Input
Amino acid sequence: MKKFKFSLEKVLAYRKQVEEQLKTELINKREEHRALVEELDHLRAKYSELKRGLGEGRIEAWRLAHWSERSLFLEELIDKQAEMVEQSFSRLRALQKKYIEARRSSMVLEKLKEKKFAQYEYEVSREMQKGLDEFASSSYVRRS
Output
């Protein structure tokens, strides 16, 4: 009997390639998102430190003005960074959905390939058994 050949092998290979590309892209996006979240946490920590520094005793007018400017600047940075984190999270979720869909798509073909291979193995075993039965029958006829 001829060797097993899956007729959709090229399609499966293409889907696997797309899946791997999406996986790599997803890993990179997760790293980018993590970096953005770390930056946001860092900015929030700086802002908290700045607020704690204000509560220490009396403060001069020029220091209060400086604190106010710096505080507004940090608040703007935090808002922008939070927006970037939110956008990054949305892109990450969209990419995760794409990856899951690509994974499912390739898994369908993998399952089909497994079924076809099991069917092939069954056919091979049937052919072998048929050959053995014919051999046994012919041996029996020759002995008689």
Notes: The chain has one domain: 9-109.
